[in-house]
Write a structure and sequence with these properties.
single chain; about 350 residues; alpha/beta; Glutaredoxin; 2 domains; two-stranded antiparallel sheet; 11 helices; 6 strands; elongated
């Protein structure tokens, strides 16, 4: 009987000890979680404060390898972050990188000066020469590239901007940011007064010279001269010169890896200055071909009509085929072709 009572008492003591151990473990775990949550909150607040401080100094935050791992890859994060991977050093000879950086800075400045500015999204940049380890970790072998890192979860394929499809314009970058982070950004481009000032000075100089030197202005009444001027304006506008004035693209692009030089951009949303000159020359050649064909029309005078007609036909057919070939290279889905 005494043994049974002893066993019962021992069992109760063991049960009590087991319950106390469980309770102690629960309290300790809850305390650790609370401390961990508090530390995480403090760490997050410190990261956001530091990013805001950097952002007040510059619209684009420069990151090296350590900063990239701390503020982009590590948790916790409650903000979206846009990273431009680029190569801006002169020895890289990346004209597209410079153009992309200018457009990217316009978007970042527009966001920083917006009334809706907050810590929801930050614009950062990693240069290849300052963070080669980042490029290696991200398995990148080309630049520029724009990538969105969401606050939570893994990145998706849509978080990498498709530059071949959208181009490098500030409006395209802002749309990409809105689609991925949900933050709308109204792009505000700084005014460029260079062109109107130069035009006013040129017109004023010509007017003063004409007034003081009494220059003969009978050429202004020539329909031929006005025709040439109209053709020049048409060639300039149809080749995208106005787009060049607005966007300021580079003359051409030299691939830093292969050394190849591209004079025509592969996207339908972007172009180089050299591409405009090429299209302008092709339009001029087609126009000249039509003029030659017109000169050989029935009733026109001339002894070498046949040669002129063949040359005009070759120019119209050949150059138009080349123009259509370039168009198809920028619009891969275009179904029509001619000769080439």
């Amino acid at each position: 009987m005494a043994a049974a009572v002893c066993n019962t008492s021992v069992c109760r003591l063991l049960r009590f000890a087991f319950v106390m151990i469980l309770l102690l473990h629960y309290v300790t775990s809850a305390k650790k979680k609370a401390v961990s949550k508090k530390d995480s909150t403090v760490k997050l607040e410190g990261k956001v404060k530091q990013l805001l401080d950097w952002n007040l100094r510059k619209p684009i935050i420069n990151l090296n390898g350590d900063k990239f791992r701390e503020y982009v890859k590590s948790s916790p994060r409650n903000y979206s972050i846009i990273v431009m991977f680029t190569a801006l050093q002169p020895q890289r000879q990346c004209q597209v990188c410079r153009q992309g950086h200018e457009e990217y800075e316009i978007v970042a400045s527009s966001w920083r000066s917006s009334s809706d500015y907050s810590s929801r999204v930050f614009f950062t940049m990693v240069d290849f020469d300052e963070g080669p380890d980042v490029f290696q970790a991200m398995k990148l072998n080309s630049a520029p590239l724009f990538v969105h890192f969401p606050p939570t979860g893994k990145r998706k394929a849509q978080d990498t901007m498709d530059l071949q499809r959208t181009g490098l314009g500030a409006e395209s970058i802002a749309k990409f940011v809105q689609d991925r982070s949900g933050v709308p950004i109204r792009v505000i481009r700084p005014p460029n007064y260079t062109v109107p000032i130069v035009m006013l000075l040129a017109l004023g100089t010509i007017g003063l010279l004409a007034y003081f030197t009494r220059i003969d202005i009978s050429f202004l009444y020539s329909t031929t001269n006005w025709g040439y001027a109209a053709l020049c304006i048409i060639f300039a506008m149809s080749s995208g010169q106005m787009w060049n004035q607005i966007r300021g693209p580079p003359l051409f692009h030299k691939n830093p890896q292969t050394g190849e030089t591209a004079y025509i951009h592969g996207s339908s949303q972007y172009q180089f200055i050299s591409e405009s000159y090429i299209i302008m020359a092709l339009h001029g050649a087609i126009t000249f071909g039509w003029i030659l064909l017109f000169e050989t029309a029935p009733g026109s005078r001339g002894s070498s009509k046949k040669t002129t007609a063949i040359l005009g036909l070759v120019l119209v057919v050949g150059v138009f085929s080349l123009l259509l070939y370039i168009f198809r290279s920028k619009y891969p889905g275009y179904p029509y072709r001619f000769l080439l």
